[in-house]
Every structure is written in structure tokens, then in C-alpha cells.
């Protein structure tokens, strides 16, 4: 039985990608560049760095993007439908929850705004200095710190780098993706809304 849940944040717990994509596209258009929103969305689903590199944006652009994104997402980004209830149900069973994310400390304001902070025992963000996923360093740290049994622990994320981090740490994994592709994930679901079927049955 799964007892310990290590979550990614963007695209897994919170529906933040629409804001990320909209802000990035708007800033590119201000520079007179034409870009397909779908292309940006696909790149963002890989990583922000991949998106920056693909469009060869400046450090000033990245800083402006992060500032604009932070302001807008506090107003517009919300948990995926059913996530709040899923966390409650798992917590009631005695589960522990943790987050490993590449984003900065803005995550804390989003969790607090939606009343979800109390569910998470640990939230590891970029400033904590762990190697970025798919390196398993952050996941392994959580497993060891909280003495989680590996066969009772799962990493859940929407990108292959999330499940690779969990796989390399020796725990179970779940990939959220509606795109058929090869994966090392133990389980796959097509959307965050389908997690309930997997985790509560």
C-alpha cells in the first residue's frame, strides 16, 4: 500500500501551464517575434530552460518573464480539479505528502492561498540547491530524511524527468500524460483528475 507521496507541482498539482505559456508568448510578441502558442506549451512541458534555449532569450527577458509570471499566477493558477479532495482523502488515511519542484519559493504563496500548505511535510524548491530532476538527489533526500519504505513511496509528475528521478531513487512512479510515449513510470494516467482511480482504489 502506498503511504508516501512525492509530488511535482506545475502541471501535476496546479494548473499553471496556461499562465506560463501566455506570459512567455506575450513577452515574445512585445519584441516583435511571432510564435505558435502550441510550440511554447510543448517546450514548457519539457522545461523552462528548454524553452529559453529554443527561443534564445536574454537574461533580461527571463527576469521579466519570471516577475510577470509570479504576479499573474497568484491570481489565475489553481489546483487541478479533484486534487484538493485527493490530498484530503490520502491524508485521512495517514499518508505523507512532499513536493520536489524546479520553481522558486512562489510555490508557498500558491499553496497558502488555496489552503493546502498543511498537507505537505516537505517542499523542496530550486533555492534548496538540490540537483535538478531527473537527478534523484532531492527524492533520495526525502526518502532518507523521512525514513520512507521505498515500496510504499511514489513520485508523481507530468514529465518524464519527474518519473526518472523517482525511478533512479528506487521508488514507484506515476506519469501524468495524454501523449503516448515510452516511459519508465510504474503507472500512467491521462490527467490529474484520473489519479483518484489509481491512488484511492
CATH architecture field of the largest domain: 3-Layer(aba) Sandwich
Please tally the helical runs, counting DSSP H or I stretches of 4 or more residues: 9
Largest sheet: 6 strands, parallel
Helix and strand pattern:
EHHHHHEHEHEHEEH
**Average predicted local confidence, pLDDT:** 95
CATH superfamily membership of the largest domain, which one?
HAD superfamily/HAD-like
- What's the overall geometry? globular
Decide which structural class fits the backbone.
alpha/beta
The poorly predicted ranges are none
Protein name: Phosphoglycolate phosphatase
Pfam family, one: HAD_2
Organism: Exiguobacterium indicum
InterPro entries: HAD-like_hydrolase_sf (IPR050155), HAD-like_sf (IPR036412), HAD-SF_hydro_IA (IPR006439), HAD_2 (IPR041492), HAD_sf (IPR023214), PGP-like_dom2 (IPR023198)
Describe the structure in your own words.
This protein is of the alpha/beta class and 201 residues long. The chain folds into 2 domains: 4-15 and 78-199, 3-Layer(aba) Sandwich (Rossmann fold), CATH 3.40.50; 17-76, Orthogonal Bundle (DNA polymerase, domain 1). The chain contains 9 helices and 6 strands, in the order E-H-H-H-H-H-E-H-E-H-E-H-E-E-H. Helix 1 (17-30) packs across helix 2 (37-46). The protein is globular and about 55 Å long.
Amino acid at each position: 500500500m502506498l503511504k508516501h507521496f512525492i509530488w511535482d507541482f506545475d502541471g501535476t498539482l496546479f494548473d499553471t501551464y496556461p499562465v506560463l505559456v501566455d506570459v512567455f508568448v506575450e513577452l515574445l510578441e512585445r519584441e516583435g517575434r511571432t510564435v505558435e502558442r502550441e510550440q511554447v506549451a510543448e517546450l514548457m512541458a519539457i522545461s523552462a530552460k528548454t524553452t529559453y534555449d529554443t527561443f534564445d532569450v536574454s537574461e533580461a527577458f527571463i527576469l521579466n518573464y519570471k516577475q510577470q509570471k509570479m504576479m499573474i499566477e497568484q491570481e489565475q493558477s489553481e489546483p487541478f480539479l479533484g486534487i484538493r479532495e485527493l490530498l484530503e482523502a490520502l491524508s485521512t488515511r495517514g499518508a505523507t505528502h512532499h513536493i520536489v519542484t524546479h520553481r522558486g519559493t512562489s510555490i508557498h504563496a500558491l499553496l497558502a492561498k488555496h489552503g493546502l500548505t498543511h498537507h505537505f511535510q516537505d517542499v523542496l524548491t530550486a533555492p534548496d540547491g538540490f540537483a535538478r530532476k531527473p537527478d534523484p538527489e532531492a527524492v533520495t533526500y526525502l526518502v532518507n530524511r523521512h525514513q520512507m519504505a521505498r515500496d510504499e513511496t511514489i513520485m508523481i509528475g507530468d514529465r518524464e524527468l519527474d518519473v526518472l528521478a523517482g525511478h533512479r531513487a528506487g521508488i514507484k512512479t506515476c506519469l501524468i500524460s495524454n501523449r503516448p510515449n515510452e516511459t519508465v513510470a510504474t503507472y500512467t494516467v491521462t490527467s490529474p483528475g484520473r489519479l483518484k482511480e489509481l491512488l484511492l482504489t
